[in-house]
Design a protein that fits this description.
Strand 5 and strand 6 form a beta hairpin. This protein is an alpha/beta fold and 461 residues long. Helices cover 55% and strands 10% of the residues. The strands form two sheets. Strands 1-10-7-4-2-3 form a six-stranded parallel beta sheet, with helices on both faces.
Length: 461
């Protein structure tokens, strides 16, 4: 087994039996659940909206090359620069080149999962560049030396008491500080950083192909300030973030807000088409968009799993997943956790090391039910499992067991050859350890249904 699998098992067990952790997570998700119910009330036909969203995203994925080139042409026509990165290393290299050119020492970042994907903060710090997260949740986990716990809510695993204790340790604030006091403190601290930053880095919720626009949606205004104050704005976005035209935002922004936070629409929504133009008073002198592949084309190559590229990163599938709600985000050991992470991570980071995530699911289908763009996530997990076997990543034990099962179940005489007692002893010998120490291994009845049926028939004669 891979190191990532062993770590996943160990971390999952630890978190599953951490009652404090589970209570915090359950409380925070319950607040989300209540908000989403209210948010969905804005729709007269939510299912129709989801079907339209799914249709548009599937259209983009099917003709991705066209929409990418359309976006590039439109964005560069407004003075922006598009850079293409095959993997995380190339993306980091391009960022460092820009940083060096600008002789930058201070960078501010808005919340963006794609920079977590390529470990950008670590690379910037290694180069001697201060990289500061400006989203409150991201800033909290950065202070704690952790990774984001959730796609939308990075600090979902922390209670307000734990956050207050963290700020007491880092800044000497009162250990009983309220969320409002902590928020005000961070706002004042970050305001100076925005004014003095050399470069602002953001992600993109959507890239609009027809006008070459970068769209950002947020609740705190940190992305708006990250791209408006510094002289240089760098956007890093996955190649799947495209939507065809500006009018599509009328559909996607409410879908994202409702399923992500339960709002009708988020507080700040920005559409940026390039650097500051002549006559404009705000905005950067230079703007770059780095389009990142990082094995997204590997997902694209699979006709079933490619649907996962339609994800708009709302986080809804995480909040309903019984596995995520039990083990939490960090146990996955990946940037993208929950059902969507379990689908895409094996292709983005290697099936050999991460196939176990596709098996870490109850297949209950809740993730598919809540997805705002109707991605059939629980079915895609099954496709991943199948592909992992086809690609030769099944263990010898698994192959042997499945062959024995197939042979035995294929003929009645093989199934009846062993007695119930023999079957039970075999189960205990070969499967007890895999079944787990906390579950009771089921027992095979002494008599099969066939035996009972024949006895009943004999008794009627």
């Amino acid at each position: 087994m891979s190191d990532s699998y062993n770590k996943f098992i160990a971390d999952s067990e630890t978190k599953s039996f951490d009652k404090t952790h589970r209570a915090t997570l359950a409380f925070n998700i319950s607040k989300y659940d209540a908000a989403v119910v209210r948010g969905k009330e804005q729709y007269s036909n939510l299912e129709l909206a989801k079907e339209r969203g799914a249709h548009i995203k599937n259209k983009v994925i099917t003709d991705l090359a066209k929409y990418l080139t359309d976006f590039e042409a439109a964005f560069q026509a407004k003075g922006g620069k598009v850079l293409w990165a095959l993997d995380g290393a190339e993306a980091v290299k391009e960022v460092l080149k820009i940083v060096k050119k600008q002789q930058a020492t201070h960078v501010v970042k808005s919340k963006t999962m794609v920079t977590e994907e390529i470990s950008l903060n670590e690379h910037l710090e290694k180069a001697g560049i201060e990289s500061l997260e400006t989203d409150l949740g991201e800033y909290i986990v950065q202070l704690a030396g952790e990774k984001p716990y959730h796609i939308v809510t990075p600090a979902m695993h922390k209670s307000k008491e734990e956050v207050a204790e963290l700020f007491n340790q880092k800044f000497g604030m009162d250990a009983n500080s309220t969320p409002e006091q902590i928020t005000a403190f961070v706002r004042n601290l970050l305001r100076e950083k925005f004014f003095n930053a050399d470069i602002g880095i953001t992600g993109a919720n959507f890239l609009v192909a027809d006008i070459g626009a970068v769209c950002l949606t947020e609740n705190e205004g940190n992305a708006l300030m990250s791209m408006s104050f510094p002289k240089v704005h760098i956007v890093i976005a996955g190649i799947e973030k495209l939507i065809p035209k500006l009018g599509d935002l009328d559909l996607f922004w409410p879908l994202l807000a409702t399923h992500g936070t339960g709002q009708n629409i988020t507080v700040y929504n920005s559409i940026v088409t390039g650097p500051r133009q002549e006559g404009e008073s705000d905005g950067p002198d230079e703007m770059y968009v780095i389009l990142l592949d990082n094995n997204r084309t590997e997902i694209l190559a699979h006709k079933n799993q490619r649907r996962a590229l339609g994800c708009i990163r709302c986080g809804a599938c995480l909040n309903v997943c019984p596995v995520y709600k039990s083990i939490g985000g960090h146990a996955y050991g990946t940037t993208y956790s929950g059902p969507i992470g379990s689908v895409i991570t094996p292709w983005m980071r290697g099936m050999k090391d991460y196939k176990h995530l596709s098996f870490a699911s109850s297949l209950c289908g809740s993730c598919t039910e809540v997805c705002p763009v109707k991605i059939n996530l629980h079915e895609l997990l099954l496709y991943n499992r199948n592909d992992s076997v086809k690609d030769g990543h099944a263990s010898r034990f698994d192959k042997t067991v499945m062959l024995a099962y197939k042979t035995t179940m294929g003929k009645r005489k093989y199934l009846d050859f062993f007695s119930g007692k023999t079957k039970n002893s075999s189960l205990k010998k070969f499967f007890a350890s895999n079944w787990g120490s906390r579950r009771e291994l089921p027992e095979v009845a002494p008599k099969s249904f066939k035996d009972l049926w024949e006895e009943r028939r004999e008794g009627k004669k």
